[in-house]
């Protein structure tokens, strides 16, 4: 019947307070959308058919890694880093822009989305999704109080199963250029252009940004120029000329955060490792009463706290930042040494190799080799050609720097 029950299209909004924010401001709360369970069950069934249609028609571009099976952030950042590394090896300037899309999921234009659904999907599936999007309402619940009902006129449903797939379809036709690399993960977008001349690198990038800006205006998507970043990746002293998004000049930075990675100008990973060390110090200070020398927890539970709370912070993306110099790697190794000594309450003169052997904990370098080997085995059989190509690129090796695959044989 191509009909989605209206009673299943009512979402309850719960307001979760942000820590440390004044309670009298609406911006101090994070809205969480709760949908009926039966709605999500039906969405799960529809999602299997929708994703199969998108896969058969190759609707989602290869450069989009968000909300896709077997696609992870590490592989997307690896693509960006590989492009930067090749530019550095060839003595080029790499001009990169990292766009910040404002309220990407909440501002999806319904008429535009329906147009793309009708263009890309079978008619019966289009009618069902049309019924799914229309006449959606929400209300806010705080304690035992309820607000009035309001209609949702834009955006993909928050907290839904179909929302991510609908957003990917809506942004699937983002412009691409032959001389510009595009990397998207949901709404996080990076575009990079490289050339031996810094002016030409920015000109190529600017030409592509003009296409992206026009596409955003046509489909009512807005990116924040002040929150977007322009970075010049090079070993030289000069910067690439500034670029614009529309009429606004994008701020130029020496480092940028993309998908949890801090990318610096010369790709040394020094900034990223230092940020991780600062985060680890902060977390450990709050947990020292559980993991420190005076804690009454058993050794097994102390080690469990470290493996579940602290270790994931520095192992995220270790396949990429593991190519950093030994000096930078030692920053994290020293942190692990201090925590492990506190866990076993070892005196200062205890050898660290004895502590690692006793706890059966690998060093940072050993973790780099192990996880890089697992990562290579995974992307060799990756369904996306852009990811499998990462294993076949042969570095020129002008610079005396490690390649990611060198970590396996160390």
UniProtKB/TrEMBL annotation:
<dbReference type="InterPro" id="IPR043502">
    <property type="entry name" value="DNA/RNA_pol_sf"/>
</dbReference>
<protein>
    <recommendedName>
        <fullName>Reverse transcriptase domain-containing protein</fullName>
    </recommendedName>
</protein>
<dbReference type="InterPro" id="IPR000477">
    <property type="entry name" value="RT_dom"/>
</dbReference>
<feature type="domain" description="Reverse transcriptase">
    <location>
        <begin position="1"/>
        <end position="263"/>
    </location>
</feature>
<dbReference type="Pfam" id="PF00078">
    <property type="entry name" value="RVT_1"/>
</dbReference>
